[in-house]
Amino acid sequence: MLVQDDEVVGAGFHPAVGEPHAEVFALRKAGDRARGATAYVTLEPCRHHGRTPPCTEALIRAGVRRVVVAALDPNPQVAGQGVARLRAAGLEVVLGVREPEALRQQAGFRALITRGRPWVVAKYAMTLDGKVAAHGEGNGAVSSTAARERTMMWRNELDALAVGAGTVQADNPALTTRGVPDGRDPRPVVFDRQARSDVQARVWREGAVLVTGLDAVATAYEGAGVTVLRAADLPGALHGLGQLGVSSLLLEGGPTLLSAFFAAGLVDEVRVFIAPKLLGAGLSPLTRPAQAMAAAQPLRDVTIEALGPDVLVTGLLSEIPRL
């Protein structure tokens, strides 16, 4: 965003890989009014030639006077060099303004750059007594309409949406974004070690990924245009998804998939809806063996929000990568 005399004269965002960065769109809108303006950016401007020219040079040429940067770029090709270039050119640079919010927003990008794998968000809804479904139930809604609307917003924001083979068999979900204006459907990812899911299931659309075992026969999926990702374990699967450009993964699977990710220590963020209902006997979200309370994993940066009749609890299990 570019501000001149307390007026926003240009704004932009980075729409997709290979497209110009936010600074370029903002400068185009500002035109001559960029000269002497202050630029506010959530991520340090790049100074290298990648898919697009360096944003530092565009800001300098436009005559921007001051740049306020929320967070440094973890990409080794940038990592402070953008700020150094701007300062060397005589621009005033302010660092760290609203950095926590920027880091949260950039968690997927930062995980992909520094770890080579997506940021993993585990989402589920449970009753007050900790049940996600009755035994044998496939489609019972635990949470409210407001909670489901929030979930659609998350699907729109994150790169990919993952379920397990059991969910595909029980629910035949489409894994699309519904009710979000100009919504973007996430990339469907199905974890199916034996590659036994119905090839005609609704989830298999353009861009869908089947994560399966090294020896599974998946010819039918490949013939249907599905990307088949073979991996020996979950860490290998996540790195494979990273190589496909997936920076953030929303887990919406059942207890089997959730438990596997938690047991492997691969969940970075948790988003849980708690509905004011008591079910009694039913399925728990996690099927890991019981452990001592002292071994429980604490969440960091916890938020608690009332959402319709439900309560939404979110928090981090991993540090968001910085540099």
Global shape = globular
> End-to-end span in angstroms?
24 Å
Number of helices, where a helix is a run of at least 4 consecutive DSSP H or I residues: 10
As a percent range, the share of strand residues is 15-25%
> Could you report the average pLDDT, rounded to the nearest whole number?
92
Spans of at least 5 consecutive residues with low confidence: none
Structural class: alpha/beta
Strand order of the largest sheet: 10-9-8-7-11-6-12-14-13
Folded structure, characterized:
With 323 residues, this protein is of the alpha/beta class. It is built from 10 helices and 14 strands. It has helices at residues 22-30, 55-62, 81-88, 99-105, 107-115, 145-157, 165-171, 219-223, 234-243, 255-263, and strands at 2-4, 7-10, 38-43, 66-71, 92-95, 119-127, 160-164, 187-191, 209-212, 227-230, 248-251, 269-275, 300-307, 310-316. The strands form 2 sheets. A 9-stranded mixed sheet has the order 10-9-8-7-11-6-12-14-13, sandwiched between helices. Helix 2 (55-62) runs parallel beside helix 3 (81-88). The longest helix is centred in the middle third of the chain and has 13 residues, at 145-157. The model has no long low-confidence stretch (mean pLDDT 92).
Short description, anyone?
This is Riboflavin biosynthesis protein RibD. It is built from 10 helices and 14 strands. It has helices at 22-30, 55-62, 81-88, 99-105, 107-115, 145-157, 165-171, 219-223, 234-243, 255-263; strands at 2-4, 7-10, 38-43, 66-71, 92-95, 119-127, 160-164, 187-191, 209-212, 227-230, 248-251, 269-275, 300-307, 310-316.
